[in-house]
Write a structure and sequence with these properties.
The structure is a homodimer.
Chain A lengths: L7 H4 L4 H8 L3 H9 L6 H14 L5 H8 L4 E6 L7 H12 L5 E6 L4 H13 L4 E5 L5 H10 L3 E4 L9 E4 L2 H14 L5 E5 L3 H16 L6 E4 L6 H7 L8 E4 L2 H13 L14 E5 L3 H5 L5 E4 L2 H13 L6 E3 L3 E3 L5
Parallel strand pairs in A: 1-2, 1-3, 3-4, 4-5, 5-11, 6-7, 6-8, 8-9, 9-10
Antiparallel strand pairs in A: 10-12
Helix pairs in contact in A: 2-3, 2-4, 6-14, 7-8, 9-10, 11-12
The first copy, chain A, binds a DNA duplex through helix 3 and helix 5.
Chain lengths: 335, 335
Amino acid sequence: MEEGPPDPERAATPTLTAVARMAGVSPITVSRVVRRPDIVSAETRQRVEDAIRKLGYVPNMVAGSLASARTKSVGVLVPTIANSIFADTVQGLSDVLEPQGYSVILAQSGYDPLREDRMLAALLSRRPEAIIMVGAPLTADGAEMLRRARIPVVETWELPAAPIDAAVGFDNHDAGVVVARHFASAGRQRLAFVGGDDRRATQRWHGFVEAARQVGLEDPRRVVVEWQSGAGAGTAALAEVPDADAVFAANDAYAIGLLSALRRAGRLQAEPGATPAIGVVGLGDLEMGRLFSPTVSTIRIDGAAIGRAAAELALDPAKPRRVDLGFELIVRESG
Amino acid sequence: MEEGPPDPERAATPTLTAVARMAGVSPITVSRVVRRPDIVSAETRQRVEDAIRKLGYVPNMVAGSLASARTKSVGVLVPTIANSIFADTVQGLSDVLEPQGYSVILAQSGYDPLREDRMLAALLSRRPEAIIMVGAPLTADGAEMLRRARIPVVETWELPAAPIDAAVGFDNHDAGVVVARHFASAGRQRLAFVGGDDRRATQRWHGFVEAARQVGLEDPRRVVVEWQSGAGAGTAALAEVPDADAVFAANDAYAIGLLSALRRAGRLQAEPGATPAIGVVGLGDLEMGRLFSPTVSTIRIDGAAIGRAAAELALDPAKPRRVDLGFELIVRESG
DNA sequence: TTAGGCAATGATAGCGCTACCATTTTACCA
DNA sequence: TGGTAAAATGGTAGCGCTATCATTGCCTAA
């Protein structure tokens, strides 16, 4: 038995025109059934919907976007999504965007300025209706690309003095100040800072140093760790600050790694409730931090709320362009 | 002084044609400079690149995709990205896709079949060149949509008997078997299982029960927890299995939550090295698990490797369609 | 009756690019 | 020197949709 030629109506991905033909209406009517069903008569709508189902028609949004100049997509750029607090932010913004029919185009920069620019260009070439990114662009070129795109741009996790368009976050410098003062008021003498060397970590570091000086403490020591390293970096950092009595870790993973190393080295008090020999404060308020022993003191940041707020600013240019979501020092057992 | 009309060449987003005009070449030549610079003479290329830079031209990939029927994008569907092992998988696949010029369109299903179908339809309407998802589709409709799309589809984190196209993962049933046998060989008597009720968790549960029966143990108890709940669920689960002497937690976060609750309840041995009163094994091998005290025994899964392999199968239909990346039982202090 | 209004549908003309085939120019060799 | 191939460039058509402006019929009001 010979195979007949494949029925083109079934083999190829069906188009809106194919649906129109089958339903006996014009293409534009099919388009209306998909996008504005309320303006089509019930009878026609039914016929079209049957045809759509029979053909398994899936609208081609690429064509639709070109014709309407609306892509219903938002570009999202984060340094990294794995093992990170930024995952919460992506979750939060997705939760706002998806119900409104927007898709998220995700890109990662790995804290690399060149890669960031490449990713920004790649995102913009897809004509998203807005860009949400962690931090401000790392290069002037990147900033210029964003300005030229003439779409809402939301920078998050920091509050630049002159954002391209909008910003949602908190004052990283202040976070450093608050932790240093906390350590000082607890009578700590020799402070240290463990974190990456990206801009946000550096802002925290500056606040930390300045506040330490202001209260008359000697300058803290700074340990720079690779962003790819997780909690292990906290562990390794211990060797670099042998005589510190208080450490601000730029995220909770580092804090936990550090505390774990301290425990193994026998440098944590055994009795709960006692002041630990070395105070450690993290940032991010990971759930793990509450379960760890000692429970981890931290600067609490609501990453999901940052994401949700960013999505709202991205979709509505009338919203305030600068939202400070703040942070909170949560003192637990670790100091 | 009167404002002149805005120069249209500068105000609107420049098109390829505008670049061509400025460089004195045909539009197609500009297109070549962008996509295949090697086939354009050095001189012409220079002129065109200058024009591109001067105008700040960013190619419109929406139009390009429509014309070429290639979107250079991949749809990625995960249950959730926050606080989860799937973030590693997304990272892994991005690491393979981005250098090849592919964008990731990310969607989350929240383990909800209807939402999954909606997200699948939304993804497919953007005509991605492949779909990578965690697990097999939850509904027959979803599976049918994917089949009709005639693009590579990679299911991950499980190995369905009949994948739509390809699958990368491990045998979840087997993982349950291995943990149950491990508990049995350690002399445990009353087993329990803590996890979600999604398909992968249920497969682990089935393997766990079957292996327990096979070695003559009484049927394990199953505690179902909400997927949104993090480690806290592990803590809460303790109350539900008061008499168990071994617990398989479907992920490391639950395991850590459980261990934390056990410690607070004073039900963990004080002396390190001793066999704990209750054995706990997690899944995922979170870095935290190695830092926790006791260190957490776990079924080690390489989420990033799953992502990388999935991306490779998605881009190359010639690659084997079924990749078992396996898992490894790592026995640490927790049992 | 007749104008006016609205609901429902359609025809036409692109959106900004690339596939596909010319066409022109240059290079090279017998 | 002509002939052929390869390199460089261009013209035309169309991807699958939607914006915009008709057009058609029918209902209502004075």
